[in-house]
Amino acid sequence: MKFEDYPINVSPIPADEGGGYMVSIPDLPGYIADGNTIDKAIAEARDAFDAWVMVEQEDKGELPVVKTYSGQFVQRIPKSLHRQLAKRAETEGVDLNQLVTTILSQSLVRH
Fold first, then answer.
1. Could you state, in order of their start, the residue ranges of all structural domains in the chain?
2. By the number of CB atoms within 10 A of the CB, which of 52, 55, 78, 90 ranks highest?
3. For the purposes of burial, counting CB atoms within 10 Å of the CB of 103, is it exposed (0-12), middle (13-18) or buried (19 or more)?
4. CA dist 39 to 14, 20, 70, 86, Å?
């Protein structure tokens, strides 16, 4: 596995804790790196990856599997909600999947 195979999270470190940015890889428990800037934190994370992999393989003999997502899932909804979404999609001139993707994306941005 390569560093690029894993999705990363970049989070600001509060100023009272030293500032900068922390990088973690959710699929690799306990893996973190930090730096003064986002670019430096990612560079440090990339450098630390090989060492983390070596230790993990020595300790457990294998690496956690990279989680992959197909971009599809099935969700059952009430007929009335389906109707409302379909009508709104028609009104906006988009297909239902595009409308639902937009609504979900907007919801995630707010949180």
1. 3-60, 79-110
2. 52
3. exposed
4. 17, 10, 29, 43
Dihedral, CA of residue 79, residue 70, residue 21 and residue 64, to nearest 10: 120
Tokens 């090989």 belong to: 50
pLDDT score recorded for residue 91: 95
- Using an 8 Å Cβ cutoff, are 21 and 38 in contact? yes
**Per-residue pLDDT tens over the stretch 72-94:** 888 999 999 999 999 999 999 99
Strand stretches in 3-50, DSSP E: 9-12, 21-24, 32-35
CB burial of 5-43 (b: ≥16 within 10 Å; e: otherwise) equals: ebebeeeeeeeeeeebbbbbbebbeebbbbbeeeeebbe
